[in-house]
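QUALITY CONTROL LOG
STEP: pairwise intake check
CHECKER ROLE: data steward
CRITERIA: each record must contain a sequence immediately followed by its structure tokens, with no blank fields

ENTRY 1 OF 2
RESULT FIELD BELOW
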Amino acid sequence: MSTSFQVAQADFADALSDGLLGAGTDKFLPMLCAVFMEGTAGDQFVTFTATDRFMLVHRRISTVEPLGESFGALIPADQVKLLIGVHKAARGARRAPAAPLDVTIELPHLTAGSITVPLDTTHEFVKYRSLLPKESTSEIDVLPVNLALLVRVSKMSTYSKGAGVRLRFAGVSKHDEGKPPRLIVVEFAGRDDDDVTVILMPMRLPG
């Protein structure tokens, strides 16, 4: 397989960085210790996906031109880190807008600009598409939450010990149909004498 396309260098590095956040660390599951880059002929974007079985990160970035052919490439985590470092350093060194980054996949390697890395051609990435929400089922109201609040919750001792978490959306009644819930209730599953409840106040919706 051989295919080439162009993307913005900053988008490429950011998408790899985001994907790496979702990649696993279990060396016995090499297909999870990687970021899967994928594209479909005719689309004008490529996707980056990674999972550690507990979280899945899926991001897409635009290409300069529609893709000429479909492809899928599994980039091992250590090579992802190498690509991120090189392209983030190059981005920081430039003052003028950078030219589009040339990316070529010619198994078993990927070349992005001036750097070439080996791909994992032995393993297949997990079947993940059924987990992605369908556009046709977007009936759930969006509830914007301040990310700083979620960070504070993630630092709680109960959370860091791996306790299960349940989310409830409170403040909705029959008369509030079509309106977003007013509160998010985070409940940590623990012993009967060690349950923890956190209530998050949502941000005000625009308008």
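ENTRY 2 OF 2
RESULT FIELD BELOW
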Amino acid sequence: MHPHLFRMATVALFAASLLSGAGVVRARAAAPDAADDPRVAAFRQQLEAHRARLAIAGLSAAIVEDGDTLWTEGFGYADVERNVPATPDTPYHIASVTKTFTAMLALRLAEQGRLDLEAPAKGWVPELADERIRVRHLLSHTSEGTPGEKFNYNPDRFEHLKAIIESVSGRPLRLLFVETFLDPLEMHDSVPGPDLKGDARWPMLGAANLARYPRVMARVASPYTSYGEGEIVRSTPPPDDFWASAGLVSTVRDLAKYDAAIDRHALLGEEMQARAWTPLRSSTGEQLAMGLGWYVTDYRGERLVWHFGHWGTGFSAMYLKIPARKLSLILLANSENLADHHYKIGEDVTHDLFACSFLGAFVPDVSNGRGRFTASAPDTVPTTYSQAPSTDCELTSQAAFDKWLSLRKAGAHTIVPLDESLAIAYAGRYQLPSRVATVSRDGNRLFLEMFDGSLAEIFAKSPTELFLKNRPWTLKMVRERGKVVRMDIHDRGEVTAVKRLD
């Protein structure tokens, strides 16, 4: 998504102790009979197993059926260090699930006759000079190359919708979120941007909202990531900003209200909603991955409408709807791994462990799924993996997980001791693109100061190459005439040369 130098503070934890049966924290807030629903029982068992396998610190879940919240529950920890459990009311950064709200705003304007989805986008965004790029191409991520011919998920292109929506409506996007969704649907634990922590820059949002938002932000789950096979490490929060493509903070309980409003057509009429949930096709008839703002997948004759959120590290989300069954699954996590295990393999919902388990438990006539996990004791984390026959979705999601895990293992470095003389040589101030950062030391241990003042421990994989566990960075220390003069930051193929100042 948007490139940023995220704030970091490393706290290494052991996944085994965090995710063992004794460490599981659950906060139930469901209908009285939800626990007795065999579908819920089957799904929650597999959900907890997946959470353990993916080393997710905390996760909150909601299932909506026929407009009612059937079940909500929290698993694990919103804050590990403080032993704060995750609950259905834990706020998370929902990342790109924000896009569904933005798409809804554009489609409402179209439904009202105020925005033509076939209009050239360059009328509002001059830099999109190709007249063939229509507004609908931005909504469907098909604006690149020959517009409408191929899908390429690109949040930067989607971001142009903000200028279009604000120009047509005459109102800031943030205010539209409040007026259209958050206030009418009583989504009181949702915040339109993490920067709303007490300042008065947005008086039009309302005094009551501005007073409440800081309280919500104070409860936001702490971010974590994982390193290697399962070490959980404290990560960094997303940037304090709000975009068309990301930035909304919410809870599964609030998102269940949003979901119910969608299904009762309180936000869009049936015709426009059906258009949004119809996948676009190329000129050759190839079905593309999206409709208008939503992924659309036809799985064994059942239409699945979905979106995921992925902040790189720290937060992710999965929102899956089965429109014909009036069933929805909402998952939010304070780790990227909820979405990362399918996102890294390919943007296909049948690569997602949670989605496939949900289908197996709730639409067995489609998935014909079998619960493949058995618990070692009642109400504990399932620990035994069965080789029972699997559905296609179960097979593809398991294959995606296996590939993802192998990539994680391959990306883990062997830590070598750093000589204290090298630690002394590397400690100092470095000029990053937007700030000065300090590399400090404690004996032979090194720490990188982030822009919020927190420290991220730096580890060595060789005498000249260092790395961070909570960011995919390799730091190569460069000497000239025996003196360290710069640090080259290698980040997924890109290199940023950082000059040493002293």
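INTAKE CHECK: passed for both entries
DESCRIPTIVE NOTE, ENTRY 2: The chain has 15 helices and 24 strands.
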